[in-house]
Amino acid sequence: MKNFRYVSLVAVVALGVFANACAKKKIAEKPPAPPPPVATAPAPTRAAAPTPARRPAPVQQAARSTPSKYPDAATRARIDELIGRIQDAYFDYDAHTLRSDAISTLASDSKELAEILRQYPGYKLKIEGYCDERGSAEYNVALGDERAKAAKDYLVNAGVAAQQLDTVSFGKENPVCSDHNEACWQKNRRVHIVAEKQNS
After folding, report:
1. Which of 57, 73, 102, 155 lies at 20 to 30 Å from 48 by C-alpha?
2. DSSP states of the chain as a string?
3. Does the predicted TM-score (pTM) go above 0.70?
4. Which domains, ranges and CATH numbers included, belong to the chain?
């Protein structure tokens, strides 16, 4: 009986040692915990190719398509020819209303003149108003101004831009005839068109 107890005790102890050894083995067999993450530098990223600077859109070549403000020498010669063919327009005594012959004179080549001037907005003409020698200087300056304005109004209606027509009155100054009779006075009651001195 003692032997049986002894054997049983030895068996229990052996079983305990065996069980303990197995438990340690299982613990030992557990995989080790992963090491804590190490901060690593991020993989270098390839820098994006620099975007080429956008070139400004080319300016529309307006300067080339916009006509010059002033005509060239050949066109100026043509304008002078047309002005020369538009003879002086004459007026009745003490009047500034355009007569039929004055209208015919201003109508001569004025359409072509208007078409040319439209292309050169900086080019100007001057309409000069004149009177005969009778009456005061002040009165004749005012009358000459009215005559010049009447001619300007006609040319504006014919298509010439108003801003390209200036007026001036010389009254009874600068007569084309110096005799003291009606035939001579009629020649002095007039408007005359000239090209203004241009800036270029």
Report:
1. 57
2. -HHHHHHHHHHHHHHHHHHHHHHHHHHHHSPPPPPPPPP-PPPPPPPPPPPPPPPPPPPP-HHHHSPPSS--HHHHHHHHHHHHHSPPEE--TT--SPPHHHHHHHHTTHHHHHHHHHT-TT--EEEEEE--S-S-HHHHHHHHHHHHHHHHHHHHHTT--GGGEEEEEEETSS-S---SSHHHHHHHSEEEEEEPPP--
3. no
4. 67-195 (3.30.1330.60)
